[in-house]
Write a structure and sequence with these properties.
Chain A: It comes from Chryseolinea serpens. Chain A: Belongs to the intradiol ring-cleavage dioxygenase family. Chain A: Keywords: Dioxygenase, Oxidoreductase. Chain A: This is Protocatechuate 3,4-dioxygenase alpha subunit. The complex is a heterodimer of chains A (190) and B (228). Chain A is mainly beta and 190 residues long. Chain A has a single domain, classed as Protocatechuate 3,4-Dioxygenase, subunit A (Sandwich), CATH 2.60.130. Chain A is built from three helices and ten strands; from the N terminus they run H-H-E-E-E-E-E-E-H-E-E-E-E. In chain A, the strands form two sheets. In chain A, strands 1, 4, 7, 8 and 9 form a five-stranded mixed sheet that branches. The longest helix of chain A is centred in the last third of the chain and has 5 residues. Chain A is globular, with a radius of gyration of 17 Å. The two termini of chain A are 22 Å apart. With 228 residues, chain B is mostly beta strands. Chain B has one domain: Aromatic compound dioxygenase (Protocatechuate 3,4-Dioxygenase, subunit A). Chain B contains two helices and twelve strands; from the N terminus they run E-H-E-E-E-E-E-E-E-E-H-E-E-E. In chain B, the strands form two sheets. In chain B, strands 2, 3, 4, 5, 8, 9, 10, 11 and 12 form a nine-stranded mixed sheet that branches. The radius of gyration of chain B is 18 Å and the shape is globular. The chains are: A mainly beta (190), B mainly beta (228). The interface between A and B is large, with 70 and 89 residues. The structure holds fe (iii) ion. The site of fe (iii) ion has 3 residues of chain B, from strand 8.
C-alpha cells in the first residue's frame, strides 16, 4: 500500500512560550506539563538536572524548548493518561530556556531505572528557533553501569561522553547539549 | 511511490534561514530505530484541557471580541497508513490579525489585541479529528534578511502516543504571495510544500460566522532509511 506523505517539520520559532510553556514564562494561559516529571510525593530518588544548549559559537541558546521522557524508579513508562490532579509520576516534562538568567534548563525528576539491558537514561527531545526539525538525544548517568547499554555501545567511543551527565552535587546532575564543535552531542535518527 | 517522494522534511542546515547555520548538527545522526521502536509518548487526559482551550476567539477575552477575520481550522491526525490517531495533543500558537505575537521579546511595531492571546490546544477525538476557532494571523517582519516577512501561519505542536509521533510544524494559507520569499517555507522540498498549506473549505464554512480551512496532519518516523 502506498503510504501517505508525512506533514513536513518546521521550526518551533522564537515565540512558542505562551503556547507551550505559558506558566513557566508568566503568560495568562495554563500549562499542561512543566519541568517537574514528578508530583509532590514521588517514589524513588528525586534528582535535579540542569544544563544549557550551546550553539556553534559556544553561546547558550535562550530560545530552545526541551522535553524529557523517561521511565520511573522501577523502569516503567507511565501508561495511564496524564491528568490534572496527578501527584505521583508523570514521566514527561517540558522547559524553555528563556527564563533562567543563564539561558539554562532545569528539570526535577526521579532517577529512572531501565529494563531490558539498557542503562538508566532520560530521552530528550530538542526544539529551537533555527532548528527545522527536532532532535533526539539521551541523558545517561555517571554513577551507573553504562558499559553494556546497546545505544552507548553503538556510539563512536570518543563521543560517548556527550551522552553522560556530570554529577554536580548530591542528587544533582549537569547535562549540556552542544549543537556543534568538538563536543557536539550525539543525536539520534529514529 | 519512490523513496524521494517521502522525503518531505527540511534539512537541518538550510543556509538561507540563517539561524540554522550555528544551530544544526554537523555530524550524521545515529540510526537507532530498532532500539527505540517501542518507546511511547504520554497520553493526555481530558482533565488537562479547558473548555475554551480550542477557541482562541474566546479563551483570552477581557472586554470584547478579538479583532480580525474569524476562521475555523480543522482536520484529522493520522499515521502514514491513513489510520486516524485518537487522543493526540494538538497545540497551536500564532500572531494576532495585525501580525503581532504576545511574546514579551517580540518587538514588531504592530498593535497587541487585549482580547487575543493566540494560544490553544485540543485532544483529537476517536476519529482523530481536531478543530479550532481562531483569528486569521497577519504577516510579520523578521530579521533574517532585508525586508524579510513571514507568510501568514499558525504554529502547530503535535504529541501522539509513539515516540516517532512528535511533530512541530507551521500551517500556511493558500496563495500567499510571501511563499517564494520565505526561507522557512522554502526549506521544505518543493513537492512537499503543499502539505503545509491548509485547504479552504467552502462546504465547512459557517454562514454568517467563519471561513473554514482543512489541515490534516500525517505522523510517522523520521528516519532516512529507505526500506522497511
Ligand atoms: Fe511565527
Amino acid at each position: 500500500m502506498d503510504k501517505l506523505r508525512q506533514t513536513p517539520s518546521q521550526t518551533v520559532g522564537p515565540f512558542f512560550a505562551y503556547g507551550l510553556t505559558a506558566r513557566q514564562y508568566g503568560y495568562d494561559f495554563t500549562s499542561i506539563v512543566d519541568n517537574s516529571l514528578v508530583g509532590a510525593f514521588p517514589m524513588g530518588i528525586e534528582i535535579d538536572i540542569i544544563g544549557h544548549v550551546f550553539d556553534g559559537e559556544g553561546k547558550p541558546i535562550p530560545d530552545a524548548l526541551i522535553e524529557f521522557r523517561q521511565a520511573d524508579e522501577k523502569g516503567r513508562y507511565r501508561s495511564v493518561p496524564l491528568e490534572k490532579a496527578d501527584s505521583d509520576f508523570r514521566g514527561f516534562g517540558r522547559f524553555g530556556t528563556g527564563t533562567e538568567p543563564d539561558a539554562g534548563f532545569h528539570f526535577i525528576t526521579v532517577k529512572p531505572k531501565a529494563l531490558s539491558g539498557q542503562a538508566p537514561h532520560i530521552n530528550v527531545i530538542l526544539f529551537m528557533r533555527g532548528s527545522l526539525r527536532h532532535l533526539y538525544t539521551r541523558i545517561y548517568f555517571p554513577d551507573e553501569l553504562n558499559i553494556d547499554d546497546p545505544i552507548l555501545r553503538s556510539v563512536d567511543p570518543s563521543r560517548i561522553r556527550t551522552l553522560i551527565a556530570e554529577s554536580s552535587g548530591a542528587n544533582r546532575y549537569q547535562f549540556d547539549i552542544h549543537m556543534q564543535g568538538l563536543n557536539e552531542t550525539v543525536f539520534f535518527d529514529l | 511511490m519512490d523513496q524521494t517522494s517521502f522525503d518531505v522534511h527540511p534539512p537541518h542546515l538550510y543556509a538561507p534561514y540563517k539561524s540554522t547555520i550555528l544551530r544544526s548538527p554537523t555530524r550524521p545522526l545515529m540510526p537507532v530505530r530498532e532500539l527505540l521502536k517501542d518507546l511511547t509518548l504520554p497520553a493526555f487526559g481530558e482533565s488537562l484541557i479547558g473548555k475554551l482551550d480550542n477557541d482562541l476567539t474566546k479563551n483570552a477575552r477581557k472586554n470584547g471580541e478579538p479583532i480580525g477575520e474569524r476562521i475555523k481550522v480543522s482536520g484529522v491526525v493520522m499515521d502514514e497508513y491513513g489510520k486516524p490517531l485518537a487522543g493526540v495533543l494538538v497545540e497551536i500558537w500564532q500572531a494576532n490579525s495585525a501580525g503581532r505575537y504576545v511574546h514579551k521579546e517580540e518587538i514588531h511595531d504592530a498593535p497587541l489585541d487585549p482580547n487575543f492571546l493566540g494560544a490553544g490546544r485540543i485532544l483529537t477525538d476517536r476519529e482523530g479529528r481536531y478543530s479550532f476557532y481562531t483569528i486569521k494571523p497577519g504577516a510579520y517582519p523578521w530579521g533574517n534578511h532585508f525586508n524579510a516577512w513571514r507568510p501568514n501561519h499558525i504554529h502547530f505542536s503535535v504529541v501522539g502516543h509513539q515516540f516517532e509521533h512528535r511533530l512541530v510544524t507551521q500551517m500556511y494559507f493558500q496563495g500567499d504571495p510571501l511563499f517564494e520569499y520565505d526561507p522557512i517555507f522554502q526549506s521544505v522540498p518543493v513537492h512537499a510544500r503543499e502539505l503545509l498549506i491548509a485547504k479552504f473549505r467552502m462546504d465547512w464554512t459557517e454562514p454568517e460566522f467563519a471561513l473554514a480551512y482543512e489541515f490534516n496532519i500525517i505522523l510517522g518516523r523520521r528516519s532516512s532509511t529507505p526500506f522497511e
